[in-house]
Automatic annotation (TrEMBL), chain A:
InterPro entries: THDP-binding (IPR029061), Transketo_C/PFOR_II (IPR009014), Transketolase-like_Pyr-bd (IPR005475), Transketolase_C (IPR033248)
GO terms of molecular function: oxidoreductase activity
CDD domains given in the database record: TPP_PYR_E1-PDHc-beta_like
Protein name: Alpha-ketoacid dehydrogenase subunit beta
Keyword Aminoacyl-tRNA synthetase (UniProt): no
Domain Transketolase-like pyrimidine-binding residue range list: 5-192
Keyword field: Oxidoreductase, Pyruvate
Statement: the UniProt record of this protein carries the keyword DNA repair: no
Family matches, as Pfam families: Transket_pyr, Transketolase_C
Superkingdom of origin: Bacteria
Automatic annotation (TrEMBL), chain B:
Principal EC category: oxidoreductase
Domain of life, source organism: Bacteria
Function: The pyruvate dehydrogenase complex catalyzes the overall conversion of pyruvate to acetyl-CoA and CO(2). It contains multiple copies of three enzymatic components: pyruvate dehydrogenase (E1), dihydrolipoamide acetyltransferase (E2) and lipoamide dehydrogenase (E3).
Organism whose genome encodes this protein: Sporolactobacillus terrae
InterPro entries xref list: Alpha-ketoacid_DH_E1_comp (IPR050771), DH_E1 (IPR001017), PdhA/BkdA (IPR017596), THDP-binding (IPR029061)
Keywords: Coiled coil, Oxidoreductase, Pyruvate, Thiamine pyrophosphate
Subunit structure: Heterodimer of an alpha and a beta chain.
Dehydrogenase E1 component domain sequence ranges: 45-334
Protein name: Pyruvate dehydrogenase E1 component subunit alpha
KW Oxidoreductase (keyword) present: yes
SUPFAM superfamilies: Thiamin diphosphate-binding fold (THDP-binding)
Reactions the enzyme catalyzes: N(6)-[(R)-lipoyl]-L-lysyl-[protein] + pyruvate + H(+) = N(6)-[(R)-S(8)-acetyldihydrolipoyl]-L-lysyl-[protein] + CO2
Amino acid sequence: MAVKMSYSDAINDAIRFAMRKDESVVLIGEDVAGGAEVDHLQDEGAWGGVFGVTKGIVEEFGRDRVIDTPIAESGYMGAAVSAAVTGLRPISELMFNDFIGSCLDEVMNQAAKFHYMFGGKAKVPLTIRTIDGAGFNAAAQHSQSLYALFTHIPGLKVVIPSNPYDMKGLLLSAIFDDDPVIVFEDKTLYGMKGEVGEGFYTLPFGKAEIKRSGKDLTIVGLGKQVYTALKAADQLAKKGFETEVIDPRTLSPLDEDTIIKSVQKTGRLIIVDEAYPRCSAATDIAAIVGDKAFDYLDAPIKRVTAPHAPVPFSPPLEKLYMPTPEKIIEAFREMVGEHVFSAL
Amino acid sequence: MDLPVNDSGRIEDFFPTLRILDTQGHVINEQARPEISNDELKELMRRMVYTRVWDQRALKLNRQGRLGFYAPVAGQEASMLASAFLMDQEDWLLPSYRDIPQLVWHGLPLYKAFLYSRGHFEGGQYPEELKAVMPQIIIAAQCTQAAGIALGLKKRGKKQVAFCYFGDGATSQGDFYEGMNFAGAYRAPAIFICQNNRFAISVPVEKQTAAASLAQKAVAAGIRGIQVDGMDPLAVYAATKKAREHAIAGDGPTLIETLTYRYGPHTMAGDDPTRYRTDELTGEWEKRDPLIRFRFYLERLGLWSQEDEEQTAEQARTDVDKALKQADRVSKQNVTDLLGFMFEKPTQNIQEQLDAYSAREGDQR
């Protein structure tokens, strides 16, 4: 049975399923209960995080399992890592992915390396939930999409769900995965509604989804940029051009096969990513395809990304900064050349 | 085994709250009363009244969508302005996002503060002579920077001080300890001013730490710590004056904890303070209002009148309107502006993007 719920509720639902299923699952972070630590609000209930995503979870599971922390990212992330190594299955919320600057050591040098350094004997079943994404007028230090940073680090799994259904299944996979996983929640998608499986289900990592089939062009859209890609595909369809749109869903592991097979069919690839362009997921995918499917390419691979500059706070400027369907079509025009494009 | 255990002394007892004026503006601690001229007293009052009026206008402007990010300041005027009053023009200011008043009184033109709120780059382009860094968004990151600036001042033989402002929430961060410890180790001339407004957004200070005071956190760093009534302008002034003298004398940094309260929300971005604070608590703090008690005190000294009050408020309203108009006149931003600021000289990939965006922006014109 499927039910309609928001991206935000899908997260809440997944966490509840996990916490009911396994006593060792705990939720830790800043304001994850929210107000539960204020005495006079005990009975009234808590709001559950800066966007209310974890609302109601403390009522169901209590404060032993839903732990509000002081503003100390290094402190609670370190605690979550070591709790994971010694038997818990923590879900640690890094409020904004931008705050990784305050606790990168705990993630990069500790969580990601324990399994390797203990010769496979230590398990780190840690899930980090974190908020990313621009388009919310949250300025340079609250709007980044830093998934490439984590994809670069060996030992971490990186998940970028673009819709409620994927979010629930991938988050449950993350929580019950025995390795450290970081799940990115795009803040602009929280209100997005979609069909979600009612019961407990998981989705495999490293399995992309083809959102739309086509034979003339492949667009890989990362996170919410899959929707920008779909809009561009609609516009290109009006010109009689068939675009295949792929949502990779996880960056580590990455479903290379689906992307390469698609490029083998279409001969053209655009990657749409709102993150910075250098050493990015988009660049990585371009390199992999260049390496493994070069002979199939009819045109250079194009990346439609943010400029290599921080996310601006000014709302009109932020709009100009983001990838758009128009920018994708512009990239496509460059790929096929003016004569082909205008003949369409 | 019999190890010596010290469980008799309560460390917070060494950090009593310094209060000089009571809520009715009577001097209750004559001994601690700082030397301050009548003109200075008047100027401090003027700044507090002016700032209160400007803050009220800013809230309205924010609701109308004419300002962007804004963290209300009402209630914290004494903590902010009586401490910053001790700043020499050449002293350095490291504010948090709420500490816009100190920035403005230290020399940031008001229209630039508004541009900062709107996310315009000109809001970050400070006048050459202004010794300040941008309002810090990342909690406690300014604490280590204060240590560095102070160390630099010392190395260059400047008789200047770094004023570092943050809230109670920042004392949970490692950077807070690291900054204090580092500044202490080098006897760097820094003043760490913790405005304890009792709530890190919604989390009360009692739930942030087991320490009974925040001032006592100075002990571990080996620096001076003092707790003051942050609603008492004279107490804040006295503690800061002393701290600055120590810093200049080479005696190292001081941590000042000001007990204060913000009447409004954490920011205008959407938290509802009535959900995490009781009306009784807010009412209690409003009775301790810094403007009320300072007004009483100055009126008794014959230094402040209703006319002064009205003139100051009128001036603030006029200045805000003028600043807003000035902010409105600034040209709109483009992506090429963003890219142009990335490096002193654009690198190859930035130049390519600059060219591409220039062409696009040219098309739009």
